[in-house]
Amino acid sequence: MDGVTPAVENLKQEWVQSISQLQGTIQAIENCGKSVNATKEVNALSRLNEAGQDRLASLRSMQFSLDLLAQQLPTMEEVQLGQALMETWKEQYQRLHMGLRNANLCAKENMKKAAQEERELLLGGGEESTVRRRHLQIKAGMTSGAESITESFRRTHHMMAQEVERSASTLATFDESASILRKVESEYEGHGSMLARTHGLLSTMKYENVTDRMTLVFGFLIFLLAVLYVVSKRIGVLSFRGIL
């Protein structure tokens, strides 16, 4: 619970930064369509809209986080303040969402007006129209060259990314193989130690077996000697009685 309040404060700072960034994106979208280069404007508008949608998704995620954290604040007063802040954030989100939609409508209207003005200028006569057409042809050629270079750089970057990914995969495979070899080596050492202990046990058992046999033989000899002694005594007594 002690870390909830600092987490809410950090979330507030992130919210303010994201709001500022989204407002800048909306302003940039509103200004789209005022250039004569329609292709460039369309590409810029697409990128700006992607950035705007990403920031809206980030704001939704922050609202969800605040909703969870507000319920864990240590005092009831802080919980109520957190819930009030949540409502404020919802209103700001709705305004920004609507602002992004209106900015796109404004950009489309700007692009429509720019295209109409360009069409009228190109269809008109005079030196200004000729200069304008040349200027557009030169700019279109430069734009096409720049787009070609950009595409070349993009392909190169993609190839380099693939090579880096393959290299990373190869390194991961090497690391995995090295780990397997270390594991096998460890198991081999364990088996070697076990074999050494087994060999020692076998040697001990062989020694004990020989010792047991010698003990049995020695005991058997003593038993025979005892039997012979008893038999000789008995025979001697009987012979002595027979003589008497």
UniProtKB/TrEMBL annotation:
Transmembrane spans: 214-231
Signal sequence range: none
Locations listed in the record: Endoplasmic reticulum membrane
Keywords: Coiled coil, Endoplasmic reticulum, ER-Golgi transport, Membrane, Transmembrane, Transmembrane helix, Transport
Primary residence: endoplasmic reticulum
Record-annotated Sec20 C-terminal domain positions: 145-235
InterPro entries: Sec20 (IPR005606), Sec20_C (IPR056173)
GO biological process: retrograde vesicle-mediated transport, Golgi to endoplasmic reticulum
UniProt-listed Pfam families: Sec20 (PF03908)
Membrane topology according to the record: Single-pass type IV membrane protein
Recorded GO CC terms: endoplasmic reticulum membrane; SNARE complex
GO MF entries: SNAP receptor activity
Family: Belongs to the SEC20 family.
Descriptive protein name: Vesicle transport protein SEC20
Organism: Rhynchospora pubera
